[in-house]
Amino acid sequence: MTASKGRILQLQNYSVNDGDGVRTIVFFAGCPLRCRWCANPEGYTGQNNILYISSRCICCGRCAAACPEGVGIDLNDPAERAKCTGCGACVDACLENARKNTVTEMTVGEVIKKLETQMLFFRNSGGGVTYSGGECTSQPEFLAELVSEAYDMGLNQAMETSGYFELTELQPTLDRIDLLFMDIKHMDPEKHLHFTGVSNERILANIAALGQSREGIVIRVPTIMGINGDDGNIRATARFVKRHLRDPRMELLPYHSYGEDKYRQLGMTYEADLFRTPTADELSRLNAIIEDEGVRVVSYK
Ligand code: SF4
Ligand code: SF4
Ligand code: SF4
Known about the structure:
By secondary structure, this protein is an alpha/beta fold. Helix content is about 35%, strand content about 20%. Helix 4 runs parallel beside helix 6 and helix 10 (about 230-245) runs parallel beside helix 12 (about 280-290). The chain binds iron/sulfur cluster (3 copies).
């Protein structure tokens, strides 16, 4: 086991949404995409971004006094935010919990130790570990070491990924993953570029290549009315999945706005007006379209 460190947003135990049984989700920091609805915008850059929760702030000034960069109290003023290096000194200084670090550096051994505390739950439920983010493949070396250690422990391993990675580099890691959740956020390359910052070409090519070479893939669509939740896009997605996966399976994940507060706490703008959660009727109709195309609808919720 090496001492290389990964940048982790969070380890979340007792999850039942991202694979079989009871799972621990390892949220990696860093993502090459910039989805405008992202629920974890603190994970965009891979660096420690400080949340400033102004409703808790009593303006005592301890953070400003501790800051080596001369950042003032209002970290969400763009000029102040631009000076911040994410060193975390103000988080230690604040007694009101009004500032929070978002990234923790952990070795593979430290993550494995946390997973070991959950073995009883994994064994009793058929669960294991799920790598998520951010985008877990944005730290390929750390991910490879962690996956290798967990594989040697016999842990069930799942991965949630945007699919935007260098396949040749990642293949040995993916070979050790039991269940792969891959997103298709839009079938139209230009709309994909507009809403996520990258084209879908690499993602679709990776899904097509993996779909031919392995089983255990579920295609997920974060379903957002106004963006990708129209019948045409869902049908096109299902046709692609049917054509390229040996065991074609899809799961629609209805959009939620849980990340909205974090945008405020990072001084970022959230475009709430662009997005709408699908109704139960709309979801049923979209799931019927998927099944009509010969793709199995699955649910890990
Ligand atoms: S130390 Fe905390 S409570 Fe005091 S001004 Fe800074 S953010 Fe506000
Ligand atoms: S994280 Fe460091 S640089 Fe950023 S505001 Fe806090 S003390 Fe200043
Ligand atoms: S791929 Fe996921 S983590 Fe990355 S920006 Fe999009 S929603 Fe956020």
